[in-house]
Amino acid sequence: MPILKSLIENPELAGKISVNVGTNDLIAFARELAIQLKPEPASIPPEEKYFTADETADLLKVSRVTLWQWDKKGILKPRKVGNLLRYMESDVKKALMGKA
Asked: What is the pLDDT of residues 39-48, one digit of tens each?
């Protein structure tokens, strides 16, 4: 694919070139492109647990008012799960580490 490499390196040449492509070449190009664009398999994070405000307050040994204040300050933000506010376990652990 030296022509393609030349076009990538010199895009100004693209308007001056005409190309006849056969079906087999087009299929080979599509396969090569698919290989290059195929994303790396993402690691699946472990299942996240969600806690209610009461559970979170108990775990952190603070009041619900403190949780509300932390939300306003950006210290510990709840997530919306449907109509409910829940705290992610990973965020609660970070808050615990910061408190210690």
From this structure: 766 555 678 8
